[in-house]
Amino acid sequence: MKLFIYHTPELTPTDSTPDCAIVVDVLRATTTIATALDAGAEGVQAFSDIDELMQVSEKWPADRRIRVGERGGAMVEGCDMGNSPLNCTPEAVGGKRLFMTTTNGTRALKRVQAAPVVLTAALVNRQTVVRYLMTKMPETVWIVGSGWEGSFSLEDTVCAGAIADSFASEMGYPLDDLAGNDEVFGAIALYVQWREKLYELMNHASHGKRLIGLKCYDDLKYCSERDILEVLPMQTEPGVLTQSDVEVQSLQYWMEEPVTN
Fold first, then answer.
1. Residue 205: closest CA among 226, 220, 195, 216
2. Under a CB-based contact definition with an 8 Å cutoff, are residues 231 and 128 in contact?
3. pLDDT tens per residue, range 32-80
């Protein structure tokens, strides 16, 4: 398997498609997606354009849809909720489809939606994604950070590094064999330095500071949690993510012996 990490969707190759693409937007789209599906949402449909979201969601029964809109960290006018994972309780989202548009994460999903397998990952469901990779062993994997409006973000790169580090450690892969680009080494180095201080790192991140300015303290803390959800969001049709029924090793396996990497 060859693993490539791209800090933003704009940096991905335009002349090829991986066997598996993993989109990361820790603050907060992919954390929200994982949390919503874990809470029983029917699915999450992603849009880069708010007008398209409104048009498509209008065809869905009003009592079975939730419009999730975020720009610059704040909720979009006309939507039902912003991009906070803490709003995704079973009572709020159970059995419903979330129609979502965000500043960065939904753009990244759009970029890789043609890949045969598209997953989303955050720190909260990191180990379930790793278990999928260990089970299926796709030949080429891209981990695509969403970044912030085309620029690098600490939180997405540290999550990519967390995935790569865990996979390499569990499989016993030499990094020279696994890494498809230099970014893999850089992302793992970032994660190794900060893995016991992820919440602190989120506070240093530029988007973390934006969320602090919006008083989203609990969101920031929750998004820093690692391996707390056993959920694997997988694209079932372009732009639509549901909880995968692919069999992977249960999270209980990881909780029997503490994860050290």
1. 220
2. yes
3. 999 999 999 999 999 988 999 999 999 999 999 999 998 887 888 889 9
**pLDDT beyond 60 at 256:** no
Which one-letter DSSP state was computed for residue 226? -
Q: Which two tokens stand for residue 21?
A: 């693409």
Model pLDDT for residues 166-225, shown as the tens digit of each residue? 999 999 989 999 999 999 999 999 999 999 999 999 999 999 999 999 999 999 999 999
Q: CA 158 to CA 189: how far, in whole Å? A: 9
Residue holding tokens 């080429």? 140
Starting at the edge strand found earlier in the chain, the sheet holding 240-243 runs: 2-6, 140-145, 20-24, 117-121, 233-237, 240-243, 43-46, 97-101, 65-71, 74-75
CA distances to 115, 217, 242 from 246, rounded to whole Å, are 17, 34, 11
Q: Which two tokens stand for residue 220?
A: 């920031």
Tokens coding 178 = 């696994």
Q: How many CB atoms lie within 10 A of CB 92?
A: 16
8 Å CB contact between 145 and 8: yes
Nearest Cα residue to 67 out of 244, 77, 159, 154: 77
pTM for the structure as a whole? 0.92
Tokens linked to 172: 């016993």
Residue 218 β-bridge partners: none
CA distances to 37, 208, 220 from 85, rounded to whole Å, are 11, 15, 10
